[in-house]
Design goal:
about 100 residues, elongated, three-stranded mixed beta sheet, alpha+beta
Length: about 100
């Protein structure tokens, strides 16, 4: 992010939206929009936003795996086979 280029007032964005839309698509960098000198909004192109969402999903999956591994190391939980045997028996589900 280049501060001089990527932090703008909302009124500047409104005035130059076509030019700034081209910039967003070209640079793939978000633009921070200010109102009364304070950051209020972040605008970015759809492709970059989609990549950000995918990265977030991936990070959440990695965090879930990390928690699971920590749980296993601490001997919390039980093996899947043991869980399903008890689950099937409790719910009268044949294991065949």
């Amino acid at each position: 992010m280049k501060l001089a280029r990527d932090i703008l007032s909302l009124s500047t964005f409104k005035r130059d939206s076509s030019k700034l839309t081209r910039q967003l698509k070209k640079t793939k960098e978000p633009i921070v929009l200010t109102v009364n000198g304070k950051a209020e909004l972040v605008v970015q192109d759809a492709e970059s936003y989609q990549k950000l969402l995918e990265l977030k999903d991936r990070m959440e999956a990695v965090e879930g795996i990390r928690r699971g591994l920590e749980s296993m190391k601490a001997h919390r939980g039980k093996p899947a086979e043991e869980f399903f045997t008890k689950f099937f028996a409790t719910n009268n589900i044949p294991e065949d």
